């Protein structure tokens, strides 16, 4: 069923959800209808999207804890990033943290109820010393705290991906960020194809792929839809959706004219496109969803708890209260 604009009513979204629940895939045109729907349709979109979310994930929420293991010092020119070589933002700059720091953060992640510990470095890709540090710390964290490990280390080759799998990394994060068409407006020091190739190495190594994007970088609705379909077709298991925080000192300073309703429609569209994938509300949710943050969990089933790489997040206690108020429950790691 392909719908056109004159056919759009508030019952349209439930019809689309029913099709998805029956095993059909929505089209790119239908995804655009969700993304560009009138704001007054948001309650109906979320209600329909919740039926898909509930079918695959019930009322559970997975918590993820982000650890910046190496900050700043990045040779890439990603225009959104405060750690890039073209950024003048005042961010901490340090090389790979020592074992004790990484273990202390893992303990904090476990205490906050996180299922996944996300180990992130600022780099084009890991050097040998950084690879060795990850290989040493991952088994220790998993044994002591039972956390799943997601590594975000930049571009990877096949050998590096195989080594991460061998040391116990569960998944690797490497975001597509936007569409292939729009990518050159976001970064020029590597390509969209480079990012796709890293994900293919991760998939071939037998790890889960974590990859999503950023909304608010002057992309068109078609770019957001294209990214969603690319992620689905790559078989990405976990999709973090960020909302640009336009950090002073970066090339994208002053961008991101987002509204809460626009963010909610984007989250819902990804749920319709990738119904059985972990969908995570990520950076910028506090800034752009604001008082409507809880509504995002009617379609997303995952979120970060605590701070992000160089920006502050909502207090963990407030996040847990939000989940409890919704009548949802936190998924605990069973590894």
Overall description:
One of its GO terms (molecular function) is biotin synthase activity. Homodimer. Pfam families: BATS, Radical_SAM. With 335 residues, this protein is α/β, with parallel strands linked by helices. The chain has a single domain (11-320), classed as TIM Barrel. Helix content is 40%, strand content 14%. The chain is built from 12 helices and 10 strands. It has helices at residues 12-21, 28-35, 42-57, 99-111, 128-145, 158-167, 192-205, 221-234, 260-273, 285-288, 293-296, 316-325; strands spanning 60-70, 116-121, 148-152, 171-173, 208-210, 213-215, 238-243, 278-281, 302-304, 329-331. Strands 1, 2, 3, 4, 5, 6, 7, 8, 9 and 10 form a 10-stranded parallel sheet that branches. Strand 2, helix 5 (128-145) and strand 3 (148-152) form a beta-alpha-beta unit. Helix 5 (128-145) runs parallel beside helix 6 (158-167). The longest helix is centred in the middle third of the chain and has 18 residues, at 128-145. It is globular. The model has no long low-confidence stretch (mean pLDDT 93).
């Amino acid at each position: 069923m392909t719908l056109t604009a004159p056919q759009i009513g508030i019952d349209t979204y439930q019809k689309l959800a029913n099709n998805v629940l029956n095993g059909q895939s929505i089209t790119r045109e239908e995804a655009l209808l969700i993304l560009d729907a009138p704001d007054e349709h948001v309650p109906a979109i979320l209600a329909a999207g919740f039926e898909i979310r509930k079918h695959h994930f019930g009322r559970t929420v997975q918590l993820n804890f982000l650890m910046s293991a190496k900050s700043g010092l990045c040779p890439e020119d990603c225009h959104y990033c405060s750690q890039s070589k073209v950024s003048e933002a005042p961010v901490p700059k340090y090389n790979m943290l020592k074992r004790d720091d990484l273990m202390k953060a893992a303990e904090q992640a476990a205490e906050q109820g996180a299922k996944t510990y996300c180990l992130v470095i600022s780099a084009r890709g890991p050097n040998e010393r950084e690879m060795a540090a990850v290989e040493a710390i991952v088994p220790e964290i998993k044994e002591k705290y039972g956390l799943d490990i997601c590594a975000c280390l930049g571009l990877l080759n096949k050998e590096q991906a195989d080594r991460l799998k061998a040391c116990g990394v569960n998944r690797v994060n490497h975001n597509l960020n936007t569409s292939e068409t729009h990518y050159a407006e976001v970064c020029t020091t590597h390509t969209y194809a480079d990012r796709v190739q890293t994900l293919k190495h991760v998939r071939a190594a037998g790890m889960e792929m974590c990859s999503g994007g950023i909304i608010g970088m002057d992309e068109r609705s078609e770019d957001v839809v294209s990214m969603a379909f690319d992620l689905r077709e790559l078989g990405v298991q976990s999709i973090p959706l960020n909302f640009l925080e336009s950090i002073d000192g970066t090339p994208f300073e002053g961008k991101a004219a987002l509204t809460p309703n626009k963010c909610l429609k984007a989250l819902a569209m990804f749920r319709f496109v990738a119904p059985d994938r972990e969908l995570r509300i990520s950076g910028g949710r506090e800034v752009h969803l604001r008082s409507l943050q809880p509504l995002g969990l009617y379609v997303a089933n995952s979120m970060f708890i605590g701070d992000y790489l160089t920006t502050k997040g909502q207090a963990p206690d407030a996040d847990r209260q939000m989940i409890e108020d919704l009548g949802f429950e936190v998924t605990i790691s069973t590894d």
